[in-house]
Amino acid sequence: KVPYQGHIQRKKELKDLNMMDAFLFDALTEKPEDAKVIARTIVRRVLGHDLREIMVESQKQFLGLELGQRGIRMDLWVRETETDTEGRPVVRLYDIEPNIYEDDLPKRSRYYQATADAKELPTSSKFKNLPQLIMIWILPYDPFGDDRMLYTVKNMVVENKELVYNDGVVKLFLYTKGKRGGSEDLKSLLTYFEETTQDNAVDAELLEIQRIVGTVKRSRETEDRYMTLQEIIDHEKDFSYQDGLQDGLEQGLQQIVRTCQSLNQTKEKTIEMLIQQCNLTEEAAKEYVSLYWEEKVAN
Q1: CB neighbours (10 Å) of residue 102?
Q2: What is the model's pTM?
Q3: Closest to 249 measured CA to CA, from 280, 293, 290
Q4: What is the model's pLDDT at position 244?
Q5: C-alpha distances in angstroms, 221 versus 169, 256, 265?
Q6: What phi and psi values does residue 2 have, to the nearest 5 degrees?
């Protein structure tokens, strides 16, 4: 057994969720047209680039290259297609990830990049055809301790930083509480991610996202799905506290993991739920999911 390392918190009502909450971000990007609005707003404010012809996928899954290798799930995956001056198609990929994990973020982003790249280059295709990849990580913590709202990471030639090394990958780490750098547009977006309220929807773009947020939060289907999960968490919290023993806590956490699985949540989303709702460390949450996730056997 894994020693329980936290306390199951009182539920956060759907109306109080923010865009940094995994459940709400997933719900907001389920409809492609809504996902496009959110993607265009984020990319414009981060990169100053207007997305035009795009396709979006929410919760895009990339399986491991071989059986037993770890796959990944992209929160919001955007494919942009333009034409160059000679009329040839140019593809850019954007991975947008609100992320609460602090564990090995550089290596996590490296693995996401590598797995996505491997899926984008067909057999016998030339390496020059690999699309540009822009990864946007939105974080509630400062990943580098420099109090910046935007950190841009690219590969470079160490011996001469003026030489251009363009491998087509840009990683952008946004700190929602950062004070240095960035623009007013970016600052207002990050504030809105942290506190998704009408008062923080300070311009037309954010008001459009707020409209989507309001629609999702008023949805009976979304409410039912969220309440089902939260009722299980509350029930198991009460059971565990009344029991007062490690076994009671273990049973409560086991039921939460099984409920997440029954509601078609991914393992990563279940880990996020345990961290956010049960105050677990990431290591403990992963261990509980590993223990209690019921693997389905193929027929």
Answers
A1: 14
A2: 0.76
A3: 280
A4: 45
A5: 38, 20, 15
A6: -95, 125
